[in-house]
Amino acid sequence: MAIFLLFLLVWAVSGDEEAFIGVNIGTDLSDMPSPTQVVALLESQNVRHVRLYDADRAMLLALANTGIQVTVSVPNELLLGIGQSNATAANWVARNIISHVPATNITAIAVGSEVLTALPNAAPVLVSALKFIHSALVASNLDSQIKVSTPHSSSIILDSFPPSQAFFNRSWDPVMVPLLKFLQSTGSYLMLNVYPYYDYMQSNGVIPLDYALFRPLPPNKEAVDANTLLHYTNVFDAIVDASYFSMSYLNITNVPIVVTESGWPSKGDSSETDATVDNANTYNSNLIKHVINNTGTPKHPGIAVSTYIYELYNEDLVPGPATEQNWGLFDANGVPVYILHLTGAGTVFANDTTNQTFCVAKEGADPKMLQAALDWACGPGKVDCSPLLQGRPCYEPDNVVSHSSYAFNAYFQRMGKSIGTCDFKGVATITTTDPSHGSCVFPGSFGKNGTITNGTSLAPSSNDTNSGYPPQYFYGSGSLTTSVIIIGICVFHMATVFL
């Protein structure tokens, strides 16, 4: 079932730092929207920070007078020329930066992309390229406004866990040491691309999916750095802290980190089973909340780790497996791929006048898992499941998929659609398609008369003797009496399983 996205990017302030979420704009689409269409989408979604992979003139002109903060890039193919010629670098700055500011709010230049791992032959001139670009900015009195750095793949970090023992690949010390000193002396930041999806996929089951997706973990599932006793609840923080420790081993302790790429694919090949809409939704929603709340990392709590989501559009022309084409938040027509769940992150949805989202059973979910989740929702979840009784509006169709969808959604609406309340151990998913049918109106629906059903009134009353859990909800071949007894015994345990 197609799931739409509702996207808002906001920032929060912590001290003198601004923690923001931005978005990368790739252009490998067979039907790439025009620059004015791209900017219209950005403004409709309140996106205030973007990163371009080049310095396209039409795009920079379209971004003029919008106030959107822009990171432009020196493509890898230009790096050798710029890194070997101060004049070439100055010409590039004059053509692509000076001619656009101040109308276009350019705040950073990314010189190359993952040069050490993607274009190692250009590594010897990387620092020179940064210095030449910076010198041109100094000459134009723009160096305080525009920072210069270069994005790195997190793979340059070796042995990233525990973070306290992480270090950069030492074969790159001749580049990394002067690079970090340059960033330090110019007040810039280390640009890092962080992809927990790949760390998870390459771990052969060592990294739990929940740990990669920022999902809450019980204390005994958290990763602990034995040297520092810091607890890590997600891959993202562990990689960022590994970078901090790696810099400290090179005697650099005051260069902040900006994550220039992070995200999760929403679709993959048959071998990429965890590239799903639900996982992409979960990762990016949790990432946004993590960043804008200024959570920081265990090593540096409360210190902003601003992050650019990869990416704005699905890029159908990118070669490789299906995941490579499906990192986007929108398709080429500007239709959102899924709804980001930002409730509780202090945000207001920017593109949804009805805020109609629903929680339903995931297609292909294990019926036994659905049954267990249904039992919990109608029991300790305190959902009023009486509409599912025989003869009531939502009894038909009489199957576990339909009934669990109703119960899941009732719980989701009652909990204010907050993050994590539509999961049910992985058998539930978000949709914007109203699942109401016939006379069965799901909570949160406007229904036929346009009156929204208030999901907050769904908890059974204190004198509801069955606690919203009539035996008619059980689907199985065993004795009904036996089934009810078993569920009564297990119901307390289910509260810990599904929340």
UniProtKB/TrEMBL annotation:
Protein name from the UniProt record: glucan endo-1,3-beta-D-glucosidase
Coiled coil: none
Membrane topology per record: Lipid-anchor; GPI-anchor
EC number assigned by the record: 3.2.1.39
Main EC class the enzyme belongs to: hydrolase
Domain X8: residue ranges: 357-442
Reactions the enzyme catalyzes: Hydrolysis of (1->3)-beta-D-glucosidic linkages in (1->3)-beta-D-glucans
Family that this chain belongs to: Belongs to the glycosyl hydrolase 17 family.
Subcellular location: Cell membrane
Listed GO biological process terms: carbohydrate metabolic process; defense response
Residue ranges crossing the lipid bilayer per the database entry: 473-498
Native species: Hibiscus syriacus (Rose of Sharon)
GO molecular function terms noted in the UniProt entry: glucan endo-1,3-beta-D-glucosidase activity
